[in-house]
Specification:
single chain, alpha+beta, nine-stranded mixed sheet, two-stranded antiparallel sheet, 5 helices
């Protein structure tokens, strides 16, 4: 059994130990599934590069569709990273998104989905980066999983310590405003890793398309843990 299959099996067998990452109620909340690829004609450079306009666009989609949260992004080949040097490399740009984004207002609470401890944290303050970031380490009966929370408020990092215990359902952060979160509309980048590859306080949130197979071995679908339902499009 490969690592991702082992993770999926553990999560399916321990659903009662998993808490929601945000205040999501499957019985009442609907989720808007964003399409941030080149197939979406609304995503002009003028929109994406103007953060207030981009934020208004996100908020209007949520309001028009009566959705509390927006979601999407795992293994999505995105155009919104164009003109952001953070995602450019000499040979091939990084455009394949490795996490799931949850879009909602700045200040939205973030909760630990599993028991664990603080692995690391950092304010990745480059333009287009994560901004304040927390990474948790989880021991799933001898199987180690890491979870990353990016685009947080700066207050989310206050008082943290490496190896600090965290309980499932404990609030660990809030969504950051655009001027803090790396210059993006407010959202949470949620990502799972099986191996931190020596990183602390940071891990690629997007990779080169040519590296997809490599990262599929280390970056499981966060949907396995989120277990979101009721996602809709226009």
């Amino acid at each position: 059994m490969d690592a991702t299959s082992r993770l999926a099996k553990w999560l399916n067998e321990h659903r009662q130990q998993i808490s929601s990452v945000v205040d999501y109620n499957a019985a009442t909340d609907r989720l808007y599934k964003f399409n941030l690829t080149k197939t979406n004609p609304e995503l002009s450079p003028e929109l994406v590069n103007d953060i207030p306009k981009f934020s208004d666009w996100v908020n209007k989609k949520l309001a028009d569709n009566h959705c509390r949260y927006g979601i999407g992004g795992y293994m999505e080949l995105r155009t919104i990273y164009d003109n952001r040097e953070q995602f450019d490399t000499i040979d091939e740009p990084r455009r394949l998104h490795l996490g799931i984004d949850i879009w909602a207002d700045a200040g939205t609470p973030v909760y630990a989905p599993l028991n664990g401890k603080i692995h690391s944290f950092k304010d990745n303050a480059n333009f287009g980066d994560y901004g304040p970031t927390i990474i948790l380490e989880h021991d799933l009966d001898g199987f180690t999983l890491y979870s990353l929370y990016g685009h947080l408020s700066r207050e989310s990092l206050a008082g943290l310590a490496v190896r600090q215990p965290i309980k499932s359902g404990q609030q660990i952060a809030t969504f950051g405003a655009s001027e803090i979160n790396g210059n993006w509309p407010p959202h949470l980048h949620f990502q799972l890793m099986l191996d931190m590859e020596g990183n602390t306080g940071d891990f690629f949130g997007a990779c080169k398309l040519s590296e997809k197979d490599k990262y599929l071995q280390n970056i499981p679908d966060p949907g396995l843990l989120l277990n979101f339902a009721n996602a809709i499009n226009d």
